[in-house]
Here is the input.
Amino acid sequence: GAVVSQHPSWVICKSGTSVKIECRSLDFQATTMFWYRQFPKQSLMLMATSNEGSKATYEQGVEKDKFLINHASLTLSTLTVTSAHPEDSSFYICSTNQGDQPQHFGDGTRLSIL
Amino acid sequence: AQSVTQLGSHVSVSEGALVLLRCNYSSSVPPYLFWYVQYPNQGLQLLLKYTSAATLVKGINGFEAEFKKSETSFHLTKPSAHMSDAAEYFCAVTRSGSARQLTFGSGTQLTVLP
Here is the structure.
């Protein structure tokens, strides 16, 4: 069964809206989760590392005020795209792992901003 | 810094033919290498991983990959392609200093022809 649950799987909203995406670790406590962004026909690009109980670490070029990450519990990290615009339309994927085991990925969220 | 290069953004094979997807890595430290598969609008599923044990790694769905240090390669193969193998394949390497943050290649779209 799924190890990581990501919700919603698809969201369409108007420009200027804020959108929250949830990533849940179902089988273990996840102190760290990763958020990726994938444009059509392209690879995954790491956006940020979400750390339970502390601030997220953002990759260079990723606006932390635009992409708010909250990791308030050991099983849940959320990514909020604030004041979304069409250029934010993308496929967002989260992942986590346990110890040195490989990453488990969520099924992704397709975000479309009109 | 670590990186992976996937040669060929698109590969087409006939059903029953050999599948060969190429991945070359660059790493200043012994790498951990992974192959993931992605079906449309889904997250990534781990096919196999190399973690400095056996150089020939067997994964799920009949796939395997061989780590060749002299060639800095980690090519993915399957003896006989099946229609269900059609998907996007990503090679990934762990980032320097971390066993969990992944750097992905650009991906290879595999098409299986009847």
In short: The radius of gyration of chain B is 13 Å. The CA atoms of residues 26 and 100 of chain B lie 17 Å apart. Chain B is about 0% helix and 55% strand. The interface with chain A takes residues 34, 36, 41-46, 49, 51, 90, 99-107, 109 of chain B (CB under 8 Å).
